[in-house]
Amino acid sequence: MNAPLVLGGATVAVGLAAHGAFYRNSALFGAALGRLPTDRREVALTFDDGPNPDATPPILDALAQAGVHATFFILGRHAERWPALVRRVHDEGHAIGNHGYYHRKLHFKGPRYVRHDLGRGADAIAQACGARPALFRAPHGFRSPWVNAIARSMGERVIGWSLGVWDSDRPGVDEIVHRTLAGARPGSILLLHDGDGYDPAGDRRQTAGAVPRIVGQLAARGYAFVPVPAA
Ligand SMILES: [Zn+2]
Questions:
Q1: Of 48, 117, 167, 196, which one is the catalytic site residue?
Q2: Strand, coil or helix: what is 50?
């Protein structure tokens, strides 16, 4: 008679572990900031997987023109390739977060691997711009019990997101704009991509094309743009 209970317990445990690994803001493995702590019309624009020589510069141009600051979760191996772009992101006042070095999903990786990946990513950023990142976002949001602890031990706050619009599928500039405007709420952390985590030459020009319209139309609706807070 106990077997179904044991089985039930095992099922629950596996379910909880999957929840923690696959849901980017899940508190099970420690908190990841999934939205800004505000009900005001503020959003954080975040860009993952860059820098990228075709997408990052026009995005920075658009942000500068609008006087808006965003947060860039930079991939270490791309930072090594294009350190001048990392410096530009930093020099123009945007927040920089660590996105690891290799862009492998971390939920089944052991602590040694995670520490190596995060450490090498942060080192590449520091090498490029002289500042160490105070934020971390896991590739695809996949975490494990030690990912948060290791990130925190490196002085990095773990960040999730409120709204992803699958801009990396390249659905077209209009669609990226539409999805972002339709989903943005006060306090949203908006996830976009200025790079491709798997291909340094990946095409993110659609996202770059969408940014001026996203910024302009959210501003017209009364939204302000804030960097993701490090504490
Ligand atoms: Zn990524």
A1: 48
A2: coil
Of residues 94, 99, 107, 193, which has the active-site annotation? 193
Does the annotation mark 194 as catalytic? no
Q: Tell me if residue 49 is catalytic.
A: no
**The two structure tokens encoding residue 36:** 């800004």
Q: Where are the domains of the chain?
A: 2-225
Fold of 2-225: TIM Barrel (3.20.20)
For 112-129, write each residue's pLDDT tens digit.
Answer: 999 999 999 999 999 999
25 — phi, psi (to 5°)? -105, 10
Q: pLDDT tens digits for 5-35?
A: 333 334 434 444 545 555 566 666 667 899 9
Give pLDDT, residue 7: 36
Distance CA 119, CA 163 (A): 27
32, 24 Cβ separation under 8 angstroms:
yes
